Amino acid sequence: MRSLEVDLGPRSYPIWIGEGLIAQAGECLRERLMSPKIMIVTNPVVAGHYLGALRQSLEGAGFVVSQVVLPDGEAYKTLETWQLIFDGLLADKHGRDTTVVALGGGVIGDMAGFAAACYQRGVDFVQVPTTLLSQVDSSVGGKTGVNHPAGKNMIGAFYQPKAVLIDVTVLNTLPVREFSAGLAEVIKYGLIGDAAFLAWLEEHIDRLMARESAVLIEAVTRSCENKARIVGLDEREQGIRATLNLGHTFGHAIEASQGYGQWLHGEAVAAGMVMAAKLSVQLGWLAGQELPRLVRLLKAAGLPIAPPAGMAAAEFLKYMAVDKKVQQGRIRLILLKGIGEAVVTDAVTAEQIQTFLEA
Amino acid sequence: MRSLEVDLGPRSYPIWIGEGLIAQAGECLRERLMSPKIMIVTNPVVAGHYLGALRQSLEGAGFVVSQVVLPDGEAYKTLETWQLIFDGLLADKHGRDTTVVALGGGVIGDMAGFAAACYQRGVDFVQVPTTLLSQVDSSVGGKTGVNHPAGKNMIGAFYQPKAVLIDVTVLNTLPVREFSAGLAEVIKYGLIGDAAFLAWLEEHIDRLMARESAVLIEAVTRSCENKARIVGLDEREQGIRATLNLGHTFGHAIEASQGYGQWLHGEAVAAGMVMAAKLSVQLGWLAGQELPRLVRLLKAAGLPIAPPAGMAAAEFLKYMAVDKKVQQGRIRLILLKGIGEAVVTDAVTAEQIQTFLEA
Is this model's pTM higher than 0.90 or not? Predict the structure, then answer.
């Protein structure tokens, strides 16, 4: 088992990464948590694979365990679905000393974490992410929330877990499209701040696609280290943390315009990263030969390298205008000054963006 | 204008108390806030009296102002009503740099504050409390939230405002029953930690009931000072802050059993404080002669001194069992060891409480 610490002062917590960890969850958490009770939040697909093993391990360690099974998918990441967690917590009389455990992907993690943040004004929270995307992205950083019809993640909280338990064994049951979507975020860490990791990924992409355990553990660990480093520097997203949104401003527009759940988040981010890289090349910030390198890696990872055919500039601008990255009416973008060197900028004018999108 | 600082380190904020402050809100806030936009959250009753004046003052100081008018009353303190605030914020394209201003009583303050805590994971928040209760209680301390059918304030956040602006002039339009309900919390501050203030209240209760401005300002200021002192010692309610819940465990049971909105919060707290005092006398913790003194003061303030006739012990226990004051299955109570000396205790057994409630 690999272990790394996310350093956030009094809110620091460990990430455990290894094979077969779900079966050891009870022991791991018994030492970490004071709570007598646990509420597992999951969805029917994940429950079919892993709920039994997790419950057994937690009950074996003496926890009293409840569960809420939410409908599966980004389309259900709403305030309405979120309320079901409170209904379950109150029906089973969970007190302020309970712990909410998210067993699932990013949608489950975001909703369960936001519920933990708000139940009786805050109870303990643990993540057991079961997709590659959630293992390398949403399980680190404390962002929780739900979507609003007018925008993604518009309602939420910054709320840190007490621990994150990453069992790479679960990736064996992940559909190939979702696995690839997770790789988009893995590649992102190389692009924004770790050129050596990007080179490592280019070398190991075939073994990664074959889901070799040792390579998975290395890729997940280095991704989490990269994210933990950046979040540790900027927990509340005042500055450098925004670079984690490379590809996300364009990506969110793609997801929103297609209807959430049509394009996977990672797929939209992959296309968004290519767009950000292209704009960076146009501005003369990124060397032209880096672009085919990025495109090659994304293709090998089974990812799209362009937005949906026929998605108009106006459609992008419509959704970018209410994106959280808007500050005082200017669009902030994350662009590249090189591989491993992302920057937050509002130097690009609205006209330049429009011209770029139309081309 | 009186001013006091709530000392919470980086989350410290000022409370301004005086006459006619709503008309000066724009100037006061211009120096305090960076945001270009403001969203006022209020209800139709308060809007009829003060929304125009507040808007005028804020717009005069250069803010772009939106408004959401929520239905009035505790019955609407729900997740469903709360969502209307997000609908308004997104419809008017408020960004992460907006400020939510609560203009109203505790229900408005709790819902607007909770929306500010969650909108784009947290935007600035200002309170303009318009009831005596919210001026002395919910505007200090950062508790925000909504009710769930299974319990009061079960969903919420700790979230501090950037400033609180208390205009005692607004109390002139407050219905007498609501004014009295506010006095229950004022009296509570004397009971739990400020015997001198309780004596001052006994002397000034008639002038207070006549709503003399100078006496109101003094009572509100000393109440806020008391609350600010306690919250400053214990922001997250780990210890001493729980004494602020004197009368609330019994009071919440009364409110919940009668249906929210039938008994006002302060009325339920008044009856709950008498119950807590009686139990304290029975335990030999409080001198018997203090009880008629408390009853006399509450009566002079126009408050009930007993729970609803016919409310059974079982009814109390049903609602107390999911109260947030339950820790590890034991009921924590706030009781009195003297006037001005409240304690948090789990020394009273469930049987003792049942016997007390049945008597």
Answer: no
